[in-house]
Task: inverse folding
C-alpha cells in the first residue's frame, strides 16, 4: 500500500511540476499577478509530493518490503538498519528519486527564502525549476520507477552492495547531489534573466548565495568521495582521474568560476553574459555528470547498471534542458549590454584571469574524459586517457591560479597597480620562497614548489587581513575593531582560499608517499617509510552480514624501536553478494597516514599493501575548511538580505569593499 | 529590448551561438554511441587484446593428467579452435560451463588452461560441471596467462585454422555472445577452409 502511495505521489509531483513550469512563466509574461502568486505554492506542493514518495521508498526499505523490486535487489533482512535507509539511494532508481527530491527542495527554498526577489523574477525562477523537475519526474515514472513490484516477493533480498555498506559512501550521494542540483538555482536564475532580457547588479547578488551554498556541498561531496576511494578501495590513492570523478570535478570548476564572476556582476555590472553562460554550463555539467555516467558510455570503476534505452531518454532530456537554455542564450544574450569597464590589472581583471584559468582546466579535463569514447566512435580504436595526461595538463594551469589567488583580493576595483599590491603581501611571498628554498634539496623541485604555493595560499589571505586591520600601524585595539567590522564574506573568502592551500599541501605531500606491496607471513617484519611493520596474526572475525579476515600489525619506529601503532586491516567477505571488500587500516597523527590494505592470502601469508602518506589528511581537511569558509560567507548579512550591516556603512573609512548599493 | 540593438550584434549572435553548436556536436556523438551500443557495434567496455591477428606466444605447460600442450600446438592447429582460461575458484566459469559444453558438442574443440588452480580442485570442478575440454593444461604460476594478456578468468580465445588469434572474450560466455560473435567467425573460418 505505502509503495503505491509513493508511486502515486511521483505522478502527482510530475503534474504539479508541469503546472509549476507553465503557469508562473506565463503569468510573468502576461503580468498576471494571480498566476505569479501561484508559483511558491506550486513549488512547495511539488516538494511535499516528492518528499512523500521518497519517505515511502525509505519506509519500504526499513520494513524490508521485498515485493518492491528496488528493496529486493538492494537490501536484505540482515542489512543493518542504517544501510536499509541509505540503501534507498544507493542504486539507480532511488538515487534519481533523491535527485528529484533535492531539485524540488531547491524550488521550495526559492519559494521560502526568495521573498526579497521581485515577484516576476521569482515566478520565472520557480517556473524554470519546475520545467526541469517535470522532465526528470517523467523519466522516473516511465523509465526508472523505484516502486516497481516483484511478484511473488522473494523471501530475502539480494543485499546492499558491500562497497556501499560504509558510512562515508552512504552519505556521499545526498551531499554530492545537493551540490549538483543546487546549481539548478543559478541555472534557473540565468534562464529567468534571459527570459526577462535583463541582468543587473541585483542578479549577481541573488545568484551568489545560492551558488555558494551549492558549491559548499559540492566541495564536501567531492572530498567525501575522494576520501572514500582512499580508505575503501585500498589502492592508496585519493584521486584516479576516473570519468565519474571527473564528472564531479567539472561542475566544481565552472561553479567556482561562477562564484567569482558573479562578484563582478554584483559590484561592477560587467561579465554579465559570461556569468549567465557559466551558470548554464555549470548546471549542464552537473546534469551530464549525474546522468551520462549511468548511460554506460564511460568506462569507470564506479559501475552503475547500464541500460541504453534509458540512455536515450536521458540524452533527449539533457538535449531539451541544455539545448533549450543555450538556444535561449544564443537568442537573448546578445542584447545584454556590458556596463562596467575595467583595466586588465584590477580586481575584475584578476577575477577574469581566475575564470579563464578555471575554465581552461575544465576544458582540459572535459577533453580528457570525452576523448576515449569519441575516438572509439570516429576511428574505431580504443584508447584510454590516464593520470599522466591530466597531471601534465591540469597542473600547469593550476599553478597560475594559485599564484594569482593571493594577489587578486588585494587589488582594487577598476584599476590597480601590481607593485603596491605585491608589497602588501611581501612577507607571505617571502615565506613561500623560503619554504621552497629550504625544502628544494631534500624533497625535490616539484614538491618544494608545490609546498611554496600552498604556503602562499594560506599566508596571503592572512596577509590581506593583517593589511586591512592595519595591524602594528595603528593601536592594537583599533586593529581589533577594524577586524571585527570586516564583513564575514571577507573572512569567508580568506578561509576558503587558505583551505585550498591546505588541500594543495596535502596533495603535494602525497607525491612524497612511499609504498610497498609484499607477501608477509605471520611473525615477519617489513621495513618501509622509516617504520618496521610486523605481522602479528591473522584471524577470522564475524560481522553482521559478512565474515572478516583480520590481520594484526605492530608498527614500530625503525630507528628507535618505539611502538607507533597497532593496525587491523581486514578483508570482508559478503556471502550473500559473493563479494569481498577491503577494510583499510589507517592511523594518522595529522602529519602522515600509516596505511595498510590487506590483499589475497597465499601459502600461509598475506599480501600487504603498506603506505606512508605524508600530509594525506590535509587534502580533505582543506576541503572542509573551504566549505566552512563558504558557509561563513553565506552567513554574511549582505549575501542573505542584500544589505550591509549599518555599522559597516558608517565605518566607511575602513577599507571594507563598499556594498553595491 | 528593441531599443538596445547595436552595431556588431550579428557577430555577437554568431559568437554566442557557439555553445549551442558545441552541444549539438557532443549530443550527436552521444546519440550515435548509444545507438551503436544498442546494436552491439560499439562497446566502450571492451578490452582489446594484443593477440588479435597474431599467433599465440611460446609456452610449455604440464597437463592435468598426462601431457599438457605447448605454444607450437596452438600456432599450427589442425582446425579452428577455442582456448579457454578457467579456474575452479571462479564463479563466472561455473556460469559458462553449460555454454562451453554446447560449443564442444557442436564440434568446435576447446582447449582449457586452468589458471592458478590446484589439480585436485580442477578435477573436482570438471567432475561436477562436466568437462567440455579436448585437452587441459595447468598454468599454476599464471605466467602464460600474463604473456597472453589475460585480464581475468574466464577468458576465451578463438584461433583460426591458420593459427591466428581472431577473437577474444573476457568474461563468462553466454548464448547471446556465441550467436553474435562466435558464429560469424566460425562461418568465415569454414568458408576459407573450403
Result:
Amino acid at each position: 500500500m505505502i509503495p503505491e502511495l509513493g508511486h502515486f505521489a511521483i505522478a502527482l509531483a510530475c503534474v504539479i511540476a508541469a503546472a509549476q513550469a507553465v503557469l508562473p512563466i506565463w503569468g510573468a509574461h502576461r503580468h498576471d499577478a494571480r498566476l505569479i502568486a501561484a508559483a511558491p505554492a506550486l513549488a512547495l506542493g511539488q516538494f511535499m509530493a516528492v518528499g512523500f514518495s521518497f519517505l515511502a521508498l525509505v519506509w519500504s526499505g526499513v520494513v524490508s518490503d521485498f515485493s518492491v523490486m528496488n528493496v529486493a535487489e538492494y537490501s536484505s533482512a540482515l542489512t543493518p538498519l542504517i544501510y536499509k535507509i541509505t540503501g534507498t539511494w544507493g542504486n539507480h532508481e532511488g538515487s534519481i528519486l533523491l535527485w528529484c527530491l533535492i531539485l524540488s527542495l531547491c524550488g521550495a527554498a526559492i519559494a521560502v527564502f526568495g521573498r526579497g526577489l521581485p515577484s516576476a523574477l521569482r515566478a520565472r525562477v520557480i517556473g524554470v525549476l519546475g520545467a526541469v523537475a517535470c522532465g526528470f519526474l517523467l523519466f522516473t515514472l516511465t523509465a526508472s520507477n523505484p516502486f516497481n513490484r516483484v511478484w511473488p516477493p522473494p523471501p530475502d533480498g539480494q543485499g546492499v552492495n558491500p562497497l556501499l555498506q560504509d558510512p562515508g559512501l552512504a552519505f556521499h550521494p545526498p551531499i554530492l547531489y545537493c551540490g549538483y542540483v543546487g546549481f539548478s538555482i543559478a541555472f534557473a536564475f540565468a534562464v529567468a534573466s534571459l527570459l526577462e532580457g535583463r541582468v543587473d547588479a541585483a542578479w549577481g547578488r541573488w545568484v551568489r548565495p545560492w551558488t555558494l551554498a551549492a558549491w559548499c556541498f559540492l566541495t564536501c561531496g567531492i572530498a567525501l568521495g575522494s576520501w572514500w576511494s582512499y580508505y575503501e578501495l585500498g589502492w592508496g590513492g585519493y584521486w584516479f582521474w576516473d570519468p565519474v570523478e571527473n564528472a564531479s570535478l567539472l561542475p566544481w570548476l565552472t561553479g567556482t568560476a561562477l562564484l567569482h564572476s558573479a562578484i563582478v556582476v554584483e559590484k561592477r555590472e560587467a561579465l554579465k553574459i559570461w556569468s549567465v553562460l557559466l551558470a548554464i554550463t555549470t548546471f549542464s555539467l552537473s546534469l551530464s555528470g549525474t546522468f551520462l555516467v549511468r548511460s554506460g558510455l564511460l568506462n569507470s570503476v564506479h559501475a552503475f547498471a547500464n541500460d541504453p534505452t534509458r540512455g536515450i531518454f536521458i540524452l533527449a532530456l539533457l538535449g531539451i534542458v541544455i539545448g533549450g537554455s543555450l538556444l535561449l542564450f544564443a537568442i537573448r544574450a546578445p542584447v545584454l549590454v556590458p556596463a562596467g569597464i575595467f583595466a586588465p590589472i584590477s580586481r575584475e581583471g584578476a577575477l577574469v584571469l581566475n575564470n579563464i584559468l578555471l575554465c581552461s582546466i575544465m576544458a582540459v579535463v572535459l577533453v580528457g574524459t570525452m576523448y576515449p569514447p569519441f575516438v572509439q566512435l570516429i576511428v574505431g580504436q580504443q584508447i584510454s586517457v590516464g593520470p599522466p595526461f591530466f597531471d601534465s595538463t591540469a597542473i600547469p594551469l593550476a599553478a597560475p591560479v594559485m599564484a594569482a589567488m593571493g594577489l587578486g583580493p588585494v587589488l582594487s576595483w577598476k584599476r590597480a597597480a601590481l607593485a603596491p599590491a605585491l608589497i602588501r603581501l611581501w612577507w607571505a611571498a617571502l615565506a613561500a620562497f623560503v619554504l621552497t628554498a629550504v625544502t628544494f634539496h631534500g624533497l625535490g623541485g616539484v614538491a618544494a614548489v608545490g609546498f611554496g604555493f600552498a604556503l602562499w595560499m594560506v599566508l596571503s589571505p592572512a596577509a590581506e587581513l593583517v593589511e586591512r586591520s592595519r595591524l602594528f600601524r595603528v593601536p592594537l585595539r583599533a586593529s581589533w575593531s577594524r577586524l571585527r567590522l570586516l564583513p564575514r564574506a571577507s573572512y569567508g573568502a580568506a578561509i576558503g582560499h587558505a583551505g585550498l592551500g591546505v588541500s594543495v599541501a596535502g596533495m603535494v605531500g602525497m607525491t612524497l608517499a612511499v609504498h610497498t606491496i609484499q607477501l608477509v607471513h605471520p611473525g615477519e617484519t617489513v621495513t618501509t617509510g622509516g617504520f618496521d611493520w610486523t605481522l602479528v596474526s591473522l584471524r577470522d572475525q564475524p560481522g553482521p552480514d559478512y565474515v572478516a579476515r583480520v590481520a594484526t600489525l605492530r608498527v614500530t619506529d625503525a630507528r628507535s624501536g618505539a611502538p607507533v601503532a597497532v593496525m587491523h586491516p581486514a578483508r570482508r567477505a559478503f556471502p550473500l553478494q559473493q563479494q569481498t571488500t577491503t577494510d583499510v587500516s589507517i592511523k594518522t597523527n595529522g602529519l602522515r597516514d600509516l596505511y595498510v590494505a590487506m590483499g589475497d592470502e597465499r601459502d600461509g601469508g598475506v599480501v600487504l599493501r603498506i603506505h606512508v602518506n605524508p600530509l594525506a589528511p590535509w587534502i580533505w581537511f582543506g576541503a572542509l575548511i573551504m566549505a566552512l569558509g563558504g558557509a561563513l560567507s553565506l552567513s554574511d548579512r549582505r549575501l542573505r538580505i542584500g544589505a550591509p550591516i549599518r555599522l559597516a556603512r558608517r565605518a566607511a573609512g575602513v577599507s571594507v569593499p563598499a556594498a553595491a548599493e | 529590448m528593441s531599443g538596445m540593438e547595436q552595431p556588431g550584434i550579428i557577430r555577437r549572435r554568431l559568437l554566442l551561438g557557439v555553445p549551442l553548436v558545441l552541444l549539438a556536436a557532443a549530443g550527436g556523438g552521444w546519440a550515435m554511441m548509444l545507438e551503436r551500443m544498442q546494436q552491439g557495434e560499439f562497446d566502450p567496455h571492451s578490452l582489446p587484446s594484443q593477440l588479435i591477428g597474431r599467433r599465440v606466444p611460446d609456452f610449455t605447460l604440464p597437463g592435468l593428467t598426462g601431457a599438457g600442450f605447448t605454444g607450437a600446438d596452438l600456432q599450427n592447429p589442425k582446425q579452428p579452435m577455442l582456448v579457454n582460461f578457467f579456474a575452479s575458484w571462479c564463479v563466472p566459469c561455473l556460469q559458462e560451463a553449460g555454454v562451453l559444453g554446447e560449443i564442444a558438442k557442436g564440434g568446435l574443440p576447446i582447449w582449457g588452461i586452468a589458471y592458478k588452480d590446484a589439480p585436485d580442485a580442477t578435477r573436482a570442478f570438471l567432475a561436477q560441471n562436466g568437462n567440455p575440454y579436448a585437452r587441459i593444461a595447468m598454468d599454476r604460476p599464471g605466467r602464460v596467462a600474463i604473456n597472453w594478456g589475460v585480464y581475468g578468468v574466464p577468458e576465451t580465445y578463438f584461433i583460426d585454422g591458420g593459427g591466428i588469434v581472431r577473437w577474444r572474450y573476457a568474461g563468462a560466455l553466454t548464448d547471446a555472445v556465441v550467436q553474435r560473435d562466435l558464429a560469424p567467425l566460425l562461418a568465415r573460418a569454414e568458408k576459407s577452409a573450403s
Summary: The first strand of chain B starts at residue 81 and ends at 86. Chain B touches chain A through 31 residues (CB under 8 Å). Strands of chain B lie at 81-86, 110-115, 135-139, 155-159, 165-170.
